[in-house]
Amino acid sequence: MSRINADVVIALLLLVVCSALYLDTYFYETVPGAIIGAKIWPRVVTFFIGGLSVLYLIQSLSATRPEPKDDGEQINGVADWFRVNRNVVACFAFYGLFLASLKWLGMLIGGILFVFVTLSFLGENTRRSFVINAIVAVVCVGCMWAIFTFALGVILPQGEILPR
Questions:
Q1: For the segment 37-93, what is each residue's pLDDT rounded down to a tens digit?
Q2: Separation CA 6–CA 56 (nearest Å)
Q3: Residue 108 CA to chain centroid, in angstroms?
Q4: Separation of alpha carbons 60 and 53, rounded Å
Q5: DSSP 66-110
Q6: What's CA 58's distance to the chain center, in Å?
Q7: Would the pTM of this model clear 0.90, i.e. be above it?
């Protein structure tokens, strides 16, 4: 029998959360005269995420785990933990700054800056990679912003720099 690892536990927790969220949709009120009920979209999303969680569980149960290598790197305290997890901590810090700056920069400019800074921090430090990161940030965040704003009619944070 294979050992239960963190992937199995996370997959099971995701399935429990998806089940609870799907069950919660039965308590949504139906608006009179609505063509599509308020339950449809949450059920589709939770069903999709639940399906991905089932695949994750199957994959994590069937995967053979290699023996962990002892590379000699020991974590002896908080400073070593931050050194080892520098990228993760920096990405969360960038995301926190992005959330804090939404009031002033708005979703479009703040999102472009967040994606550009994160990609530049994690990638190479060459002029070519900075240009590619800028293009990816502008195109991806711009398309996402356009889809949410114009196609879905979602009001995203505008910011003080580009008010409507």
A1: 778 888 999 999 999 999 999 998 887 766 666 666 677 788 888 888 889 999 999
A2: 12
A3: 17
A4: 10
A5: PPPP--S----SHHHHHHHTHHHHHHHHHHHHHHHHHHHHHHHHH
A6: 22
A7: no
